[in-house]
C-alpha cells in the first residue's frame, strides 16, 4: 500500500462524496428544480455519483473482510464493474449538461448526437466485456487491482468529452451570465484537479469527492434559481427572461413569444387589498401552468406574463392564445370574491418579428393600445408596436449622435415674391431607419419625456440662425418655432425660453411660436398666462392648424395670437367642392374680423396662391414656394428671392 493509501482514507473520501451528493439531490428536490431537461440531466449526474460512491464503499468494505470467499470476490468484481460503467458515463453526461446550460442541446441533430455518443458506447462495451478480456483492469493473484492498457481509452474518452464540454462552453460564452461563467470554470477546475491527482497517484482516491464538490458548486451557482424566480408565483422573473432570451437569440432558436397583459389591474388594486392582488397573479399562474411548463412562464411586471412557446405549429399557438384569452371571460375566484379581469394576449414569432431581447421587452412593456378592440394581437397587429420601438430607439440615438437637423420652409407674402419668414421643422436622419418624420417622432418624444430636449435644440438652432443676421439681411421678419402645448403649460417654461433666447442675445420679436389649436378648454388659463408672459418680452405667437380641432372658437380667440395659420386640409378641401370654398372663405372672414393676420399653409399651386391673394390672406406657405430644406439651402433660397425683388 502506498503512502496515501489506506482503505480507511478511501472510504472517508467516498463517504464524504456520498453525503455531498445526497445533500445536493435532497435540495434539488425540495426546491422542485426537477422539471427541465437541464434539471433532469443534473439529477442523473448526481445519481451516478451516488451509485459510484456506493460501489466503491461496498468494494472497500468487502476488501476489509478477513475471510474472503469466492462469492465475496464475485460481489467485489461486480461492484468494481458497475463502478467503471457508471464512472465512464460521468463525462458524457456532464457534456450533455453543459449543452443544456448553453442552450446548444436544442439544435443538435440526431446524427451528431449519435456521433457524440460513439466513444461512450464503445468504452462502455469494453467495460462490460472486461471480465472476459481484461482490457481495462484485472486483479492479480493477491487480488490487487491493476490497470490494463485499455484504461487509457477510458481516460481518453473522458478527456474528450471534457474537452468538448469546454469547447461548447467557450463557443456559447456570450450566452452565459457572468455568474455562470465563473462558477463553471471554478468547478471544472476542481473536478479536473481531482481526476489528475488520482491519475498520477493511483491510491489517492479523491476523484469522486472532487466530482461531488463539483456538482455541489453547480447546484449552488447554476441550478439555483432564487434570483430568477418570482417569490410569490414561483415562475421565472424578468431577469431570467432577459438571460434566456439572450441565449435563444444567440443560438438562433425559433419560438413564439406570448404576452398576457392584465388591463384593469388598477381596479383590482382598488377593490382588493395588496395581498389579494398577489393572489390574483398566483391564480393566473396556476392556470397558465396547466397549459405550459412552469419554466416557460415569466412574470415580467406586476401585470404582465411572458410565455415562450417552442415546437408548436401556428394552429396550436393560436389555440393556446385563444384558450388563455377566453379564460378571462370567466371570473377568477380569489378568496371568497369573484373577480372579472381583462387581459390582452399578444403573440409574436421570434426571431422573425421579435428579433432581439429589447424588442421582446418592448412588446412586454408597451401599454395596451387603447384604439384596438381585439383581445388577441398577432404578428401583423404588432407591426406598429415594433415600429414604435424602433423609432423610440432612433430618438434616443438621435440625441446622442446628433442626428437631428432643423429644416426651414419659407413663408411668403401674397405678392409671391417677398419672403416674410420661415417655419423651423425638425428632421431626424437615423442610421438604421433613414429619415423619420416629425409626425411620427414628435408624439413619441412627448411620451418619452424628451420633447424638452428637442424643443430646446430647435430653439437654439433658430436663435443661432437669427443671431447670424442673415435672415434680417434678406428681409425676414421672424422664424417660426413649433411648441408642444404640453410643454407650454409646464412650470418654468417661460424662464427656460427666456434663458435660451437671452443667451444668444436675440431680439424676441424675431421669434414666432406656433401652438396648435387643439387645447383642452380647462387649460386655457395656464396657456393664456404663458403666452402673455412671453408676449410681454416681445415674442410673437401663431395659432397652428386652425380648422382641424374642435375647440371652442371663443376660447381660442381669447388667446392673444398675432397670426392664425389655416390648416392645409381647409385649403385642399376647396378642390373637393363648393363647401370647401365656403369654409375657407368664412374662416378667412372671421379671423380678419378678429383682427388677426392670416397665414395659409399647404399652398402647392399658383391657382391656390392667387385664390388666397384674392381672399386677402396675409402670408402663404407651401411646396409651391419651397419644401422644408436644410439651413444652407434655405439661405440660398432667401438670398435668391431677395435679389429677384
Ligand atoms: P405643422 O406645424 O402643421 O407643419 C407643417 C407641415 O406641413 C410640415 O410637415 C410641412 O413640411 C408640411 N407642409 C408645408 N407645406 C406643405 C405643402 O405644400 N404640401 C404638403 N403636402 N405639406 C406641406 P412636417 O415637417 O412633416 O411636420 C409635421 C408636424 O410635425 C408639424 O406640423 C408640427 O406639428 C410637427 N413638428 C415639426 N417640427 C417640429 C418641432 O420642431 N417641434 C414640435 N414640437 N413639433 C414639430
Ligand atoms: Ca407648425
Ligand atoms: Ca400647421
Main sheet: which strands, in order across?
11-12-14-15-16-17-18-19
Structural class: alpha/beta
CATH structural architecture of the largest domain:
Alpha-Beta Barrel
Average pLDDT score: 89
> Which CATH class of the largest domain is shown?
Alpha Beta
How many beta-strand runs?
20
How far apart the termini lie comes to 114 Å
**Helix content bin:** 55-70%
Can you count the helices? 25
Uncertain stretches of 5 or more adjacent residues: 1-5
Rg calculated over all Cα atoms: 38 Å
Largest sheet: 8 strands, mixed, barrel
- Unique ligands: ligand C2E, calcium ion
Question: What coarse outline follows from CA principal-axis ratios?
Answer: elongated
CATH fold topology of the largest domain: TIM Barrel
CATH superfamily of the largest domain, called what?
Answer: EAL domain
State the domain count.
Answer: 3
Descriptive notes:
By secondary structure, the protein is an alpha/beta fold. The protein folds into 3 domains: 3-223, Rhodopsin 7-helix transmembrane proteins (Rhopdopsin 7-helix transmembrane proteins), CATH 1.20.1070.10; 236-389, Reverse transcriptase/Diguanylate cyclase domain (Alpha-Beta Plaits); 402-644, Alpha-Beta Barrel (TIM Barrel). Helix content is 56%, strand content 16%. The chain has 25 helices and 20 strands. The chain has an 8-stranded mixed beta barrel with strand order 11-12-14-15-16-17-18-19, surrounded by 5 helices. Helix 2 runs antiparallel to helix 8 (207-223), helix 3 packs parallel to helix 6 and helix 4 (110-128) packs antiparallel against helix 6 (151-171). The longest helix is centred in the first third of the chain and has 33 residues, at 70-102. It starts with 6 loop residues before the first helix and ends with a helix. One calcium ion (CA) binds at residues 544-545, 565, 567, 601.
Amino acid at each position: 500500500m502506498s503512502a496515501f493509501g489506506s482503505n480507511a482514507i478511501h472510504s472517508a473520501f467516498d463517504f464524504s462524496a456520498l453525503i455531498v451528493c445526497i445533500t445536493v439531490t435532497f435540495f434539488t428536490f425540495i426546491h422542485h428544480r426537477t422539471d427541465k431537461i437541464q434539471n433532469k440531466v443534473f439529477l442523473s449526474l448526481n445519481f451516478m455519483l451516488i451509485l459510484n460512491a456506493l460501489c466503491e464503499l461496498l468494494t472497500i468494505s468487502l476488501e476489509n473482510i478477513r475471510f474472503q470467499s469466492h462469492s465475496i470476490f464475485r460481489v467485489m468484481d461486480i461492484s468494481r464493474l458497475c463502478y467503471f460503467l457508471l464512472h465512464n458515463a460521468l463525462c458524457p453526461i456532464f457534456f450533455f449538461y453543459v449543452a443544456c446550460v448553453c442552450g446548444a442541446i436544442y439544435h443538435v441533430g440526431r446524427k451528431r448526437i449519435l456521433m457524440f455518443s460513439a466513444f461512450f458506447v464503445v468504452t462502455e462495451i469494453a467495460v462490460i466485456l472486461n471480465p472476459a478480456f481484461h482490457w481495462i483492469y484485472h486483479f492479480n493473484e493477491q487480488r490487487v487491482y491493476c490497470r490494463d492498457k485499455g484504461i487509457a481509452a477510458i481516460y481518453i474518452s473522458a478527456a474528450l468529452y471534457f474537452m468538448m464540454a469546454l469547447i461548447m462552453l467557450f463557443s456559447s460564452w456570450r450566452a452565459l451570465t457572468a455568474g455562470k461563467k465563473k462558477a463553471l470554470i471554478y468547478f471544472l477546475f476542481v473536478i479536473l484537479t481531482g481526476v489528475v491527482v488520482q491519475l498520477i497517484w493511483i491510491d489517492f482516491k479523491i476523484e469522486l469527492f472532487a466530482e461531488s464538490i463539483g456538482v455541489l458548486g453547480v447546484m449552488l451557482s447554476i441550478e439555483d434559481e432564487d434570483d430568477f424566480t418570482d417569490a410569490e408565483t414561483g415562475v421565472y422573473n424578468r431577469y431570467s427572461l432577459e438571460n434566456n432570451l439572450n441565449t435563444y437569440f444567440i443560438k438562433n432558436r425559433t419560438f413564439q413569444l406570448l404576452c398576457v397583459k392584465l388591463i384593469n389591474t388598477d381596479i383590482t388594486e382598488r377593490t382588493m387589498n395588496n395581498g389579494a392582488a398577489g393572489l390574483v397573479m398566483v391564480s393566473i399562474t396556476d392556470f397558465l401552468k396547466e397549459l405550459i411548463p412552469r419554466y416557460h412562464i415569466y412574470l415580467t411586471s406586476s401585470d404582465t406574463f411572458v410565455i415562450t412557446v417552442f415546437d408548436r405549429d401556428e394552429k396550436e399557438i393560436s389555440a393556446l392564445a385563444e384558450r388563455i384569452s377566453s379564460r378571462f371571460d370567466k371570473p377568477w375566484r380569489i378568496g371568497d370574491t369573484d373577480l372579472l379581469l381583462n387581459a390582452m394576449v399578444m403573440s409574436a414569432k421570434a426571431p422573425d418579428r421579435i428579433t432581439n431581447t429589447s424588442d421582446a421587452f418592448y412588446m412586454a412593456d408597451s401599454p395596451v393600445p387603447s384604439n384596438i378592440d381585439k383581445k388577441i394581437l398577432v404578428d401583423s397587429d404588432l407591426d406598429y408596436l415594433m415600429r414604435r420601438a424602433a423609432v423610440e430607439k432612433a430618438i434616443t440615438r438621435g440625441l446622442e449622435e446628433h442626428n437631428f437637423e432643423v429644416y426651414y420652409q419659407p413663408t411668403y407674402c401674397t405678392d409671391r415674391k417677398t419672403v416674410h419668414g420661415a417655419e423651423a421643422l425638425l428632421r431626424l436622419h437615423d442610421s438604421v431607419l433613414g429619415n423619420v418624420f416629425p409626425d411620427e417622432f414628435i408624439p413619441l418624444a412627448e411620451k418619452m419625456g424628451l420633447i424638452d430636449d428637442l424643443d430646446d435644440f430647435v430653439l437654439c438652432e433658430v436663435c443661432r440662425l437669427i443671431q447670424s443676421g442673415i435672415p434680417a439681411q434678406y428681409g425676414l421678419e421672424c422664424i417660426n418655432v413649433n411648441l408642444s402645448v404640453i410643454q407650454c403649460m409646464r412650470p418654468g417654461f417661460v424662464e427656460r425660453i427666456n434663458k435660451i433666447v437671452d443667451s444668444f442675445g436675440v431680439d424676441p420679436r424675431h421669434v414666432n411660436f406656433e401652438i396648435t389649436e387643439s387645447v383642452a378648454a380647462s387649460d386655457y388659463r395656464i396657456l393664456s398666462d404663458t403666452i402673455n408672459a412671453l408676449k410681454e418680452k416681445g415674442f410673437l405667437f401663431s395659432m397652428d392648424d386652425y380648422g382641424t380641432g374642435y375647440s371652442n372658437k371663443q376660447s381660442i380667440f381669447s388667446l392673444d395670437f398675432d397670426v392664425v395659420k389655416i390648416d392645409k386640409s381647409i385649403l385642399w378641401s376647396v378642390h373637393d367642392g363648393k363647401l370647401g370654398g365656403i369654409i375657407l372663405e368664412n374662416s378667412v372672414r372671421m379671423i380678419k374680423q378678429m383682427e388677426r393676420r392670416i397665414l395659409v399653409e399647404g399652398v402647392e399651386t399658383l391657382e391656390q396662391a392667387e385664390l388666397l391673394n384674392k381672399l386677402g390672406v396675409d402670408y402663404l406657405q407651401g411646396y409651391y414656394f419651397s419644401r422644408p430644406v436644410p439651413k444652407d439651402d434655405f439661405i440660398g433660397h432667401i438670398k435668391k428671392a431677395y435679389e429677384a425683388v
